[in-house]
């Protein structure tokens, strides 16, 4: 692969000699860059369809990483962005595309936990992230994607796409649509609790997939969390829930055989323990609503994937035409499985909370 031109806009240590695509995430394009001095960087093109204001987005991200750097002992525990020759944290190329760069610190990410410890480490990473940001001035954060986890609004958008049916795909998904619409009221539960003030607004990560945690190659301990584009005011239940949806599932998010998709209750408990240990400031009500976070995030992703399928795959990267439909079906299966183990999920949280939060 050619060296991406944008790389030269940044203050690099050495001259670029290699550039390879990192297969990461459904949204931005991510490359790894190596220079002749052995320096390694991650170069990312920001997806402008998803993030309408990359400049303000980067202002958020740099404010958050600066804040974190003042609080961590090892610099690898927070992302370090590289300024451009002009001293900015983003580069705008001739085509109007936005790029950013950060140090590649040599860790690795997982799509599935190889052990309980891997998943526990990710829970600590997201729990600590939230605790460290407790003092961050939330009002200074720009909402990079307005109403990101507002499930009531997600349902509104979902129904509008069904109504418009721009690609004639609605007829391919009638069972799935029925399943999701039946759960619309349930889907709004946490949003209503947020609005009534029953659940506190915090600075949260909002995209807590396991592969957004960087683990140390040697110790396998969590270093830092990646993908800070959606750091915004949010609910702890959503951060917890998205991590469960992705990491405590028995199949990949896009597993074509939906029968393989269930919730691994053991891993669920492992994550609960790590998260509660790392985030002691959660209120009792927040702790109680963690299972609801898992259920609602899974429901939300099912509606988002299905909406994107109906819209003609405009938002998420897809590898084949039914990819978003498959993703939605597999998430639906996980929702159903969570609902059939609802009492157990709640019991696990209550038991671990009684132990950890003495
Ligand atoms: C996207 O960028 P990535 O792949 O970590 C999405 C998340 C979804 C996730 C589903 C900004 O995350 O909200 O949960 O895909 N990010 C955005 O895999 O929409
Ligand atoms: Mg990601």
Question: How would you summarize this macromolecular structure in one to three sentences?
Answer:
By secondary structure, the chain is an alpha+beta fold.
Provide key terms for this protein:
two-stranded antiparallel sheet; binds 2-acetamido-2-deoxy-1-O-phosphono-alpha-D-glucopyranose; binds magnesium ion; single chain; 358 residues; 12 helices; five-stranded antiparallel β-sheet; alpha+beta; globular; 43% helix
Q: What can you tell me about this protein's structure?
A:
With 358 residues, the protein is an alpha+beta fold. It has 12 helices and 9 strands. It has helices at 54-69, 116-132, 151-164, 174-182, 184-187, 189-195, 236-247, 265-278, 284-288, 290-311, 323-340, 342-356, and strands spanning 16-21, 29-35, 40-45, 91-92, 98-103, 202-204, 213-215, 222-225, 232-234. The strands form 3 sheets. It has a 5-stranded antiparallel beta sheet, covered by helices on one side. Strands 6-9 form a two-stranded antiparallel ribbon. The protein has a two-stranded antiparallel sheet with strand order 7-8. Helix 8 runs parallel beside helix 12. The longest helix is centred in the last third of the chain and has 22 residues, at 290-311. The protein is globular and about 55 Å long. The mean pLDDT is 96. 2-acetamido-2-deoxy-1-O-phosphono-alpha-D-glucopyranose binds next to loops. Residues 24-25, 209, 211-212, 227 line the site of magnesium ion.
């Amino acid at each position: 692969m050619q060296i991406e031109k944008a790389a030269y806009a940044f203050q690099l240590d050495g001259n670029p000699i290699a550039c390879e695509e990192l297969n990461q995430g459904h949204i931005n394009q991510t490359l790894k860059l190596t220079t002749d001095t052995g320096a390694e960087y991650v170069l990312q093109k920001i997806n402008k369809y998803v993030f309408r204001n990359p400049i303000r987005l980067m202002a958020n991200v740099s404010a958050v990483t600066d804040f974190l750097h003042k609080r961590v002992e090892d610099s690898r525990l927070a992302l370090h962005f590289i300024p451009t020759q002009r001293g900015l944290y983003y580069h705008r190329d001739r085509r109007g595309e936005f790029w950013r760069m950060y140090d590649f610190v040599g860790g690795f990410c997982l799509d599935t936990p190889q052990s309980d410890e891997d998943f526990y480490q990710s829970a600590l990473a997201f729990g600590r992230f939230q605790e460290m940001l407790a003092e961050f001035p939330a009002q200074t954060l720009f909402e990079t994607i307005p109403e990101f986890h507002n499930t009531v609004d997600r349902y509104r958008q979902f129904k509008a796409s069904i109504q418009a049916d721009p690609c004639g795909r609605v007829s391919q998904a009638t069972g799935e649509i029925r399943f999701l619409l039946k759960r619309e009221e349930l889907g709004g539960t946490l949003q209503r609790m947020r609005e009534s003030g029953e659940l506190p607004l915090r600075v949260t990560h909002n995209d807590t997939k396991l592969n957004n945690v960087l683990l140390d190659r040697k110790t396998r301990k969590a270093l830092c969390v990646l993908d800070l584009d959606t750091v915004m005011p949010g609910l702890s239940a959503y951060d917890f829930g998205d991590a469960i949806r992705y990491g405590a599932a028995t199949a990949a998010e896009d597993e074509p055989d939906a029968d393989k998709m269930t919730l691994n209750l053991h891993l669920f408990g492992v994550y609960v323990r790590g998260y509660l240990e790392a985030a002691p400031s959660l209120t009792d009500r927040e702790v109680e609503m963690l299972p609801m976070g898992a259920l609602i995030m899974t429901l939300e992703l099912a509606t988002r994937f299905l909406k994107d399928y109906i819209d003609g795959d405009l938002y998420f990267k897809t590898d084949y035409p039914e990819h978003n439909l498959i993703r939605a079906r597999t998430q639906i299966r996980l929702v159903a499985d969570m609902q059939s183990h609802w009492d157990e999920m709640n019991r696990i949280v209550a038991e671990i909370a009684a132990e950890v939060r003495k």
